[in-house]
């Protein structure tokens, strides 16, 4: 996420991400497919880690995202 925060999505290149992560371009493409998919996974991971424990329950949601009756 740091690359995207510093440079923005459009300005962050796959080369930037390869250098920052320290893995090969082939591995990055095999794992994520493209920059947008990598960004989405990183954002999902960040959001999941920033929610307080029990936030879904407090909002009336089950773990699978469906609403409680």
Please state the average pLDDT score: 79
Cα(first) to Cα(last) distance is 36 Å
Structural class: mainly alpha
Determine the strand fraction and express it as a percent band: under 5%
Radius of gyration: 16 Å
Shape: globular
Given as residue ranges, the uncertain stretches (5+ residues, pLDDT < 50) are none
Strand segment count: 0
Query: Helix count?
Result: 5
Largest sheet: none
The percent of residues in helical segments reads 55-70%
| N to C succession of SSEs | HHHHH
Give structural notes.
With 69 residues, the chain is an all-alpha fold. It has 5 helices and no strands. It has helices spanning 2-7, 14-21, 25-32, 35-50, 55-58. Helix 3 crosses helix 4 (35-50).
């Amino acid at each position: 996420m740091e690359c995207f925060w510093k440079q923005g999505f459009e300005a962050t290149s796959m080369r930037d991400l390869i250098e920052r992560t320290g893995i090969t371009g082939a591995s990055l493409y095999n794992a994520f497919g493209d920059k947008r998919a990598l960004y989405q996974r990183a954002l999902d991971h960040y959001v999941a880690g920033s929610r307080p424990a029990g936030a879904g329950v407090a909002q009336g949601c089950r773990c699978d995202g469906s609403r409680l009756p």
